[in-house]
Design goal:
The chain is mainly β. The chain has a single domain, classed as Jelly Rolls. Helices cover 0% and strands 49% of the residues. Strands 2, 7, 8, 9, 11, 12, 13, 15 and 16 form a 9-stranded antiparallel β-sheet that branches. The protein has a 7-stranded antiparallel β-sheet with strand order 6-5-4-3-10-1-14, with no helix packed on it. β5 and β6 form a beta hairpin.
């Protein structure tokens, strides 16, 4: 998760995966066999100088000790995180090896612009992040090869004054998962989680996470 560099503690529940500082809302698929999660994501958010927000697809292992996620990133001018210093805007690839620490790579881009974000575990290699089908980061061996597919909205620090992200907009890839690393399946049933204040619309895609 995007989080303050001053407090990296992360408290994880078995499924909903809330962090000690992050406020999250979204959906997860009730299976531990997913080797990838992907969707087009587009929207907008306004963050204060002391806050940051993300919108990602994620795979998290079912022991809830490791994850790999990719999506939009927007940080206020004075908010720093494991993804970079204040004012970082674009995309973020965040990973946590099972039982390890959080690490994040940020990439320049336009926050909220419609792109297909994909996380995928490649057999014999590791976890990779793809934007519009092209690899942008990875591979990373994280100690797990599958888990649960997530679609996540999140903020840290000061709350955004607005936040609305659409997953699977018309003409784009809906929220999907893969088990065999080849065939992607659209997710039409998932469980919502909400740490407070999020509005999460229903499947099938397009659906939105907003507040």
């Amino acid at each position: 998760m995007l989080r303050s560099i001053l407090a990296m503690a992360f408290v994880v529940a078995a499924v909903a995966a809330p962090s000690a500082l992050a406020n999250q809302g979204g959906k997860f698929r009730g299976s531990g066999s997913d080797a990838g999660s992907r969707a087009n994501i587009t929207g907008s958010a306004s963050v204060p100088s002391n806050g940051g927000a993300i919108a990602t697809v994620r795979v998290q292992n079912t022991a809830a000790t490791g994850l790999f996620q990719f999506g939009h990133l927007k940080q206020g001018s004075s908010y720093a995180s494991d993804c970079g210093g204040g004012g970082t805007i674009g995309y973020m690839v965040e990973r946590r090896a099972a039982g390890g620490s959080y690490l994040c790579n940020a990439f320049f881009g336009v926050f909220g612009l419609n792109h297909k974000f994909s996380t995928l575990h490649v057999s014999g290699s590791g976890w990779n992040a793809y934007i519009d089908g092209s690899k942008i980061d990875g591979p990373y061996a994280l100690g797990f090869t599958s888990g649960q597919a997530f679609a996540v909205g999140e903020y840290n620090g000061g709350a955004p004054s607005s936040y609305s992200m659409t997953y699977g907009p018309s003409g784009g890839t809906p929220w999907q998962y893969t088990i065999d690393r080849t065939n992607w399946i659209t997710i039409n049933s998932a469980t919502n989680f909400n740490e407070g204040g999020w509005i999460i619309t229903s499947l099938p895609s397009p659906f939105s996470i907003s507040r």
